[in-house]
Design goal:
mainly alpha, 2 domains, three-stranded antiparallel sheet, 14 helices, MetI-like fold, 7 strands, two-stranded antiparallel sheet
Length: 392
């Protein structure tokens, strides 16, 4: 016989009931927080996602400071752009010190003692550590014309009284390298902004027409972009830059280089605009606007372009570094901007002689801001591209 002993009953799962009284106001408060997110616009959502990208935020702050310095270059630079100091040709960078013989004196520099090498007859500079010379801050120094309009003499940092201050050394004419780098930032940074603005406008117009109308308009625009894309950029830059008349003023050369860079950069953005419009023009809201009598310009500008403008801005941000590098390369090769206009590429052009660089290494320092700005644009562009992606 088998044992018919009944099985032990399973333990019941305890059932807990929340005894607290339900507060409808708490539910409304949570709903309001959720509503803030769900009702946010495209640009606000993009900004919230962008803030989570820390390298992009830091890069944006750095670039904002760099562009702000271009507005007050005359205040930052201790010397004028073309000021020469014939007694200090190829002077090495001066270090800024705080303590002298164990005593705190504040920011100061040691003056340079100049001697001649009896073998090479070159000037040899050595700091005179017995004479600390304090720097002056928020002071009146060399006169200048602020943006070529208002005469002034205010500087954030001035050389010591009766001395000199060459933080990044001097060049072959005795010009202060730090002052020249500060003034050159105004040209190198603005040429990228102006170039991408013109390129952006061409891409929106030509790419928008090709994507909206299609047919022969699309074929013509596509053939133009294919022809431009088929040429190697560097030889084409060199050819067009060399074609600029030598009799042009520096201002005309500046705008000529900007137009050349913009004309060669727009096809990439133009294709992005075309591909987006080809897909969006068939949407219901675009067809509804067309049936209501809206003109093509209003349909493109009011209804189609805002749908992917964030992607275009992110793409344009990534294109600015290529324009800065292109201007720097052309000026470095002597086919871009020419003196008296001063850019980072023009400053690097003076360091083409390897013998000069081997002895006077500080002539290569203008490449440092170029690298920092390019990296900052790349980080910020990556952050904007991720923020513009709705699936990020």
């Amino acid at each position: 016989m088998t044992d018919q002993t009944p099985a032990a009953p399973r333990p019941r799962t305890p059932h807990f009931v929340n005894q607290e009284k339900w507060d409808p106001y708490v539910a409304e408060r949570l709903t309001a927080e959720q509503e803030k997110y769900y009702m946010a616009g495209q640009w606000k959502l993009m900004w919230w996602r962008f803030r989570r990208h820390r390298p992009a935020v830091v890069s944006m702050i750095f670039l904002a400071l760099m562009y702000f310095t271009t507005l007050i270059s005359e205040w930052i630079a201790p010397y004028d752009l073309h000021a020469r100091h014939s007694a200090y040709i190829f002077a090495p960078p001066q270090s800024v010190h705080l303590f002298h013989e164990g005593k705190f004196l504040g920011p100061f520099v040691y003056p340079n003692k100049t001697t001649r090498d009896p073998d090479t007859l070159q000037r040899v500079y050595a700091p005179d550590t017995t004479k600390p010379m304090p720097l002056r801050f928020f002071c009146s120094g060399e006169t200048y014309e602020f943006w070529g309009l208002i005469e002034g003499s205010f500087h954030f940092v001035c050389p010591p009284t009766g001395g000199h201050f060459f933080w990044l050394g001097t060049d072959r004419l005795g010009r202060d390298m730090f002052s020249r780098v500060v003034y050159a930032a105004r040209i190198s940074l603005t040429i990228g902004i102006l170039g991408i603005a013109l390129s952006f406008a061409l891409a929106l117009i030509l790419g928008g027409l090709a994507g909206y109308y299609g047919g022969w308009v699309d074929s013509v625009v596509q053939r133009i972009t294919e022809i431009i894309k088929s040429f190697p950029h560097l030889p084409l830059w060199l050819a067009l830059s060399a074609a600029l008349p030598v009799t042009w003023s520096p201002l005309l050369v500046y705008f000529g280089i900007t137009i050349i860079l913009a004309l060669l950069d727009w096809p990439g953005l133009g294709r992005a605009v075309r591909s987006k419009l080809l897909s969006l023009r068939e949407e219901d809201y675009a067809a509804a606007a067309q049936m209501m009598g809206a003109k093509p310009g209003r349909i493109i500008g009011r209804h189609l372009l805002p749908g992917f403008m964030s992607h275009l801005i992110a793409s344009a941000t990534l294109s600015i570094p290529s324009m800065i590098l292109a201007e720097t390369a052309l000026s470095f090769l002597g086919l871009g901007l020419r003196p008296p206009i001063t850019s980072w590429g023009v400053l690097l052009n003076e360091a083409t002689d390897i013998n000069v660089v081997a002895v006077h290494w500080w002539l290569m320092l203008p490449v440092v801001p170029v690298i920092l700005v390019i990296l900052a644009y790349q980080f910020m562009g990556d952050g904007m591209r991720d923020a513009a992606d709705p699936y990020a």
